[in-house]
């Protein structure tokens, strides 16, 4: 069974990995570090969070945790293509399977599929950061105190990583003192959903635009991010990366 990478092209160098030894090492890295990975079916319409339980090199199998519920696992098993996305040491890892089967591992429900023949390893970067689309701006909502009352400040997202976000504060309302924390900030990630996060100010930069107006870019760090929210942020980053690579390669 021949498997193809999530990005769907053979021209992903230096992203594409074809060495079986290296692919197994990366998959074992995800397993050994107990990293959550996203399992996508129906073109990403359904996403399940799983983890790699075991790599059986002799049987040429990857064994992952099952989805919650028999019906969900049945839909996964019946899917024509299953994509997997995760992060290992802040590196994006993507691979896919043409078929997943229901199995059992150490007396617990599981899913299994052949070790992928190819895998995508995105470029290494500290908390891999990606710009958000300018055509459809995303808003990050900060609860701030204005004249003794709490108001929602809606700021445009500039970029995002699993470590935090950067926003534009045109009216310069945020307290940008390093260490200032804003709880219950909300960000609507397109195609993923609403996430509720605590953000701590890490840096700020005054910008002068081409039209002469000024703006302020504020870098914020996620604080005490839950595994569920981290998985959502991770899925959105991978979604943006897929869309960007599709545009670069002309694949839709």
TrEMBL record:
The keyword ATP-binding does not apply. Residues 15-121 form the Type III secretion system flagellar brake protein YcgR PilZN domain. The keyword Nucleotide-binding applies. Residues 123-238 form the PilZ domain. Keywords: Bacterial flagellum, c-di-GMP, Cell projection, Cilium, Flagellum, Nucleotide-binding. One of its GO terms (cellular component) is bacterial-type flagellum basal body. HAMAP family: YcgR. Belongs to the YcgR family. Acts as a flagellar brake, regulating swimming and swarming in a bis-(3'-5') cyclic diguanylic acid (c-di-GMP)-dependent manner. Binds 1 c-di-GMP dimer per subunit. Increasing levels of c-di-GMP lead to decreased motility. This is Flagellar brake protein YcgR. It comes from Undibacterium rugosum. The gene is ycgR.
């Amino acid at each position: 069974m021949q498997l193809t990478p999530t990005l769907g092209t053979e021209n992903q160098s230096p992203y594409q990995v074809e060495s079986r030894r290296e692919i197994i090492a990366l998959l074992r890295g995800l397993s050994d570090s107990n990293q959550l990975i996203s399992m996508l079916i129906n073109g990403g319409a359904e996403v399940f969070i799983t983890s790699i339980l075991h790599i059986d090199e002799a049987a040429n199998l990857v064994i992952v945790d099952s989805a919650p519920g028999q019906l969900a696992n049945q839909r996964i098993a019946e899917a024509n293509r299953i994509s997997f996305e995760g992060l290992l040491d802040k590196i994006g890892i993507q691979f896919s399977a043409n078929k997943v089967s229901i199995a059992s591992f150490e007396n617990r429900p599981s899913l299994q599929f052949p070790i992928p023949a190819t895998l995508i390893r995105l470029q290494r970067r500290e908390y891999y950061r990606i710009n958000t689309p300018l055509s459809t701006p995303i808003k990050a909502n900060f609860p701030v105190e204005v004249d003794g009352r709490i108001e929602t400040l809606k700021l445009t997202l500039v970029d995002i990583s699993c470590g935090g976000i950067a926003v534009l504060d045109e009216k310069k309302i945020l307290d940008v003192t390093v260490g200032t924390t804003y709880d219950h900030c909300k960000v609507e990630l397109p195609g993923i959903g609403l996430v509720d996060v605590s953000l701590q100010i890490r840096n700020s930069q005054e910008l002068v635009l081409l039209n002469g107006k000024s703006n302020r870019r504020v870098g914020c760090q996620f604080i005490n991010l839950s595994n569920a929210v981290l998985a959502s942020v991770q899925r959105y980053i991978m979604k943006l990366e897929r869309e960007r690579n599709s545009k670069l390669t002309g694949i839709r």
